[in-house]
Write a structure and sequence with these properties.
The structure is a homodimer of 584-residue chains.
Chain A (H helix, E strand, L loop, with lengths): L21 H6 L2 H7 L3 E5 L2 E4 L1 H22 L2 E2 L5 E3 H6 L10 E3 L5 E4 L4 H8 L11 E10 L14 E11 L2 H21 L5 E4 L9 E8 L5 E6 L7 E3 L5 E2 L10 E7 L5 E8 L6 H7 L13 H11 L7 E7 L21 E7 L9 E2 L7 E16 L9 E2 L8 E2 L1 E8 H12 L16 E4 L7 H15 L9 E2 L8 H10 L4 E4 L7 E6 L12 H4 L7 E6 L8 E7 L3 H9 L3
Helix pairs in contact in A: 3-6
Catalytic activity (chains A, B): tRNA(Pro) + L-proline + ATP = L-prolyl-tRNA(Pro) + AMP + diphosphate
Protein name (chains A, B): proline--tRNA ligase
Pfam families (chains A, B): tRNA-synt_2b (PF00587)
Chain lengths: 584, 584
């Protein structure tokens, strides 16, 4: 939905009225803080209304996404229906997903509310992709998605209705598909760089979505529900999710404690696979699968050991032809304390063994499996975006085919898909940047770039006049500044209340028009400085401003590192604000 | 979702490739034409994907809505959840609506997909409206709505998933509520004026939504499914929907044919109401209800005459205390041919009669019931927007209360609601303006304001150079023009194909860079001129251009009134384009 960015209205109806207490600002979970500060309002578990301040933040973020994807990747914007027919999901065998919201219309047709749109976009593009000449192509949308999570939590971080950007690429061969995958990932990095948040790319498992190659974007955050592992070796610096990361112990075979076993069956069910690993560690199925060259029936992943043994014995009445494959995690050794082997009748001759592999979830401190040199560091994080090089996982069952240069008409399109959790990114940034005074938005997505505050109108005509003068500098049609401006958030409250509201809502700059300081105004810096503020010599950086204003930076306390304030003549205020915003 | 307007990309993947045949352009229904021209794609009955050209059109229209509502009415933008809980709809007694899409989550909670948001917004605003000081306030959103129509038809004109702008007003008293209602209606008119389409306001029935005052916005259109009646008397000019319009026959009591009767019961069910009217006319329940001062049980509206007679006799065993009220439409007289009266035992004394009222749906040619002077004219139309002055219909059951100036804390908020069918407006405009060459968008919502076409690149280096020069005039960063620019729609097709595609997609101006005409270019005017082009003296209007270019206007045929073409030096092309666009 298009909106002109500079259009600044007060939105006075749905805004916080009174400052939040220190206690609330300090210890309220971020989801509740966002609600009290009128960004979002929870209506049901995992379901939210977006309020004006939240809408502005979302609009600014999606604007960055639109511009980057269209400019860098010539992406075509669409908006697919939210109602996706069951038949498409049957074709890709994804209908039996308990997290899909499902419904029937009055004619008993079945639909789900879209959780993701691989099926719909593949079906749609059959109308527009028929020849190799129609590719490569990138199509995307930004809109509501639905996932019936059993345990929604942390507000917009794990919601049942949320806003997502999902893009889909189409290429005629592997090379173009990989190029497109790389190009879109480059754009994703640029998008997050524009937000000035420290997002990390991690090699990831492609899970239910599918494909060979997958990259996740993580925001490091204490208390995040994901874990990423990064190698500290300079030539490597590999980062992977804990579902994907491969690590080896600093020294192999040193574990002498209890050993756990997890059973599996080969795809043809004639081989029992026994994974042995330290009891204190978790098996990593991606690694476990790799260790046997993928020859494992993955549908049994969640079955218990006993269920697998029973299945193995039932399906193989004659134990003479069965095999047993033992996979030994490299951490254990023969002196480790192994569990009993459950089968009675078997041939020792049919036992195989794989040694020296790593099949457990990586932990910090171990050796990086990528370079075999560095040590891994483990970091808690939130996943904010995910990209997949899909291959033909969707084009095959849904028959998205094209004619190639040699007139072969049944070539399958190679697809990729790319998602950014828009509301999740916003909730993560709130979580990451909040401090004892409230939220602290990067200026690129702050609901308002600046707020101009003063005492309530009508108390002092001189101050009223000065206030109007400063407001008009930013809001006037002459103003060339592309900043959203908030005036007093609560028109009838005191100056102190409005400063406090501006700070807690996370508006990067608060401009205070007081009656004593005039003709100077005070600019309070709330936003986080991404430049090196400690060594910042304003007079040297901007000699033309030397005469115009004094400046001071003071650190109040370790929990409140920056309480930066600039005092500047109102005549130069727009210039100084522009300079400050560049770094916020 | 925010997007910068001038950002012009080719969106080349999802665009028409080949010109449509004359036959298709002439006789294909508009819904199919929009699909062939890649604006929307139907996926299921009444369900559509929005494609790039459609998205651009929607974005431009919603941009106008955002700007007008925020600037004129200080409206706050929100986005409510699409999942609305059953409990809210139970409270207002609207859950039993067969057109609601309903679903359950994994915990068996029931929701509907929002068809309209009176319930949700009323519940939400309880958090932000507590005092008379918090009002008046206007809150709005633009987003997808859902209605499980049994018979979706005419593409986006009657869809099951569609885009709507819905606004809600909150006021502390009747006076403010009416002022707000009028203010928003004023803005609606401005919005449609910006589209340069001839929208008509009609007094309307408030139906299921509720409230006392209601205005519909209609686009007159042959083949529209609505009917509006307008008075031709200059002092009156009253317009009403056929559900609301009151008309009288030119002369009363002239109808001598067969008379129809429709029965009703008074609210206490002790009076049988018999409506008599000409058999050839339709009863209008709004007028029928008014004629008995609203003392009628409306829930019986759809019952047959026999059902009502049975009910009347069952509930009133002693016919001595019942009454019969005959309501005579003013068109009939005593010589008309009345049906038999079905009751045997009744007291003649208990018969009452109302004469001289009009209880049938108005038709063109009759006398306007508003002024009693003019004649009504009947026009087919499409409803594109609707506004309601709701009173306390939703604030009462959902307890949206406030404290007034005298500290009374249980005052009910007076609400209004306002809807514009965004996708419906776009489909209507397509229907209204299309001609033998395809679509003709007003420039305010055209997906692209201009298209610049030439022969395919690489055939003539001189032409390529000239083409790039013209494109850069419009796309360059120096360009101050706020126009979305399309280049060759099909990059590999001929000049003729691209002119035809540009025309059929309804792009207002096509700029042709040919190799013969250079240094002049040709500007073909496709858009409808809303000024008086026949008398337009370009040389007089724009003397500064007199030297710069020649012009010609030619009428090709009655079905193709304007085939206007301007030949102009490329140096002046941006200037001329700007002048032309003002009138399109």
């Amino acid at each position: 939905m298009l909106m002109q960015r500079c259009f600044s209205r007060s939105f006075s109806t749905i805004l916080p009225r009174a400052p939040l207490s220190k206690q609330i600002l300090k210890s309220e979970p971020t989801a509740e803080l966002l609600e009290r500060l009128c960004f979002f309002k929870k209506t049901q578990s995992g379901i939210f209304h977006m309020l004006p301040a939240g809408m502005k933040t979302i609009d600014k973020f999606t604007s960055i996404i639109h511009n980057k994807l269209q400019k860098n990747n010539d992406a075509s914007l669409v908006s697919l229906s939210s109602l996706s027919p069951k038949s498409l999901w049957d074709a890709t065998d994804r209908w039996n997903n308990s997290e899909l919201f499902k419904l029937k219309d009055s004619k008993k047709n079945e639909y789900c509310l879209v959780a993701t749109c691989e099926e719909d976009i593949t079906e749609l593009m059959k109308n527009y992709i028929t020849s190799y000449k129609d590719m490569p192509a990138l199509v995307y949308q930004v809109g509501k998605k639905y996932r019936d999570e059993l345990r929604p939590r942390s507000g917009l971080l794990r919601a049942r209705e949320f806003i997502m950007m999902d893009a889909y690429s189409f290429a005629s061969d592997e090379k173009d598909a990989t190029k497109m995958f790389e190009d879109v990932n480059k754009t994703f990095l640029e998008i997050f760089q524009e937000l000035k948040i420290p997002v990390v790319r991690a090699s990831a498992d492609s899970g239910d979505i599918g494909g060979d190659q997958s990259i996740e974007y993580h925001l490091p955050l204490v208390g995040g529900e994901s874990t990423i592992l990064s190698c500290n070796h300079n030539g490597c610096n590999h980062v992977a999710t804990d579902e994907k990361a491969l690590s080896y112990p600093v020294e192999e075979g040193q574990y002498t404690g209890d050993v756990s076993v997890k059973y599996g069956l080969s795809e043809d069910h004639t081989t029992l696979i026994c994974y042995y690993f330290p009891k204190e560690r978790q098996i990593n199925w991606n690694l476990a699968k790799l260790s046997v060259d993928d020859d494992i029936d993955c549908s049994l992943r969640d079955s218990s050991n006993q269920e697998i043994i029973d299945l193995f014995q039932n399906e193989n009445e004659d134990m003479m032809f069965t095999k047993v494959l033992r996979v030994m995690d490299s951490r254990i050794n023969s002196r480790s304390n192994f569990p009993d082997f459950p089968l009675k009748n078997y041939l020792k001759n049919n036992f195989g063994q794989i040694d020296g592999v790593s099949i457990v979830t990586a932990i910090g401190g171990e050796i990086c499996g990528q370079c075999n040199e560095g040590n891994l560091e483990s970091t808690k994080s939130i996943e904010v975006a995910h990209t997949f090089n899909l291959g033909t996982k969707y084009s095959n069952p849904l028959a998205l085919k094209f004619m190639d240069q040699d007139n072969n008409s049944d070539r399958l399109v190679k697809m990729g898909c790319y998602g950014i959790g828009v509301t999740r990114v916003i909730a993560s940034i709130a979580e990451l940047t909040r401090d004892a005074h409230g939220l602290r938005w990067p200026v690129s997505i702050a609901p308002w770039g600046i707020s101009i505050v003063s005492m309530p109108q009508g108390k002092n005509s001189e101050t009223d006049k000065n206030y109007s003068k400063v407001v008009s500098l930013f809001k006037g049609t002459d103003s060339k500044l592309n900043i959203d401006v908030m005036t007093n958030i609560n028109k009838t409250a005191s100056l102190g209340t409005n400063i406090s509201l501006s700070h807690s809502m996370g508006i990067p700059l608060t401009i205070i028009v007081g009656n004593k300081s005039w003709p100077n105004v005070e600019i309070e810096v709330r936003g986080e400085r991404w430049g090196n503020v400690d060594n910042c010599k304003w007079e040297e950086m901007y000699p033309q401003l030397k005469e115009a204003y004094q400046w001071e930076v003071k650190k109040a306390s370790p929990t409140d590192p920056y309480q930066e304030k600039h005092i500047v003549s109102h005549e130069h205020v727009t210039h100084v604000v522009n300079l400050l915003l560049q770094d916020l």
